[in-house]
Design a protein that fits this description.
This is Thioesterase family protein. InterPro entries: HotDog_dom_sf. This protein is an alpha+beta fold. It has one domain: Roll (Thiol Ester Dehydrase, Chain A). The protein is built from two helices and five strands, in the order E-H-E-E-E-E-H. Strand 4 and strand 5 form a beta hairpin. The two termini are 20 Å apart.
């Protein structure tokens, strides 16, 4: 699985009363990029990947109308979880950097090994 680069324009709805992005916006953008990456890799069901941990460091303010790109890649892949690292850039400058970890869960919400299509997308052939 390689890096995904997703262009995006900051929407007015992504901002708060200060005119800058609301701090939660970057997590939605990262999730959109994550789903794009999985779909590009052939994974069609993205419904069983709840968040376990998230973090973001904000370096530069962003405002409505800013053209940005989100760069996302899998940093660490385990048997039931993956940690993605991501950047939000404007004109090549890092505005936000972050990461989030998702866990594949079963019907009862318990961690379970990746399905074969997801495992293959992550380049894993053996889940032992």
């Amino acid at each position: 699985m390689t890096e995904l680069v997703r262009p995006h324009r900051v929407a007015f709805a992504d901002t708060d009363a200060s005119g800058r992005i609301h701090w939660t916006s970057v997590f939605r953008w990262a999730e959109l990029a994550e789903h794009d990456l999985l779909r590009r890799s052939g994974v069609t069901d993205v419904s069983r990947f709840p968040r376990k941990a998230t973090e973001a460091v904000y370096h530069r303010a962003l405002a409505a109308g800013d053209e940005i790109e989100i760069r996302l890649a899998a940093e660490r892949v385990g048997r039931t979880s993956v940690t993605y690292g991501w950047l939000v850039l404007r004109d090549g400058e890092t505005c936000v950097e972050g990461r989030h970890t998702v866990v594949h869960v079963d019907d009862d919400g318990r961690p379970t090994p990746w399905p074969a299509d997801v495992s293959a997308a992550f380049g894993q052939s053996d889940q032992s």
